[in-house]
Hints:
The protein has helices at residues 4-11, 48-65, 87-102, and strands at residues 15-18, 22-28, 35-39, 72-78. It has a single domain (4-102), classed as Ribosomal Protein S5, domain 2. It is α+β, with helices and mostly antiparallel strands. Helix 2 links the parallel strand 3 (35-39) and strand 4. The protein has a four-stranded mixed β-sheet, sandwiched between helices. It is 39% helix and 21% strand.
Amino acid sequence: MLTPEHYQNVFEKAHRAGSPHFTIIARKNSLTHPRLGLAVPKKQIKTAPGRNRFKRIARESFRLNQHKLANKDFVVIAKKSAQDLSNDDMFKLFDKLWQRLSRPSRG
């Protein structure tokens, strides 16, 4: 996702899946594929290498699970404790949350 309007659309009437380390927000889009947006504030993850590592793992996890995901826009929001996770733990947590968001919504 490229523009602030895309992000704003996701925040309105979105489904959430969260953990103590990050939150994924999703909203159906009119495209034929899912899209990913990342919000990794300096206030939460202080160092540039830490922010880059988080974004790299989030993108890779999204790429690996993209075929399972519905046509939705997803925004991943990092929390401070995300920098303490190992790469493997972060991948496992992303997989769990992608799976939760790929289920059909109730009602």
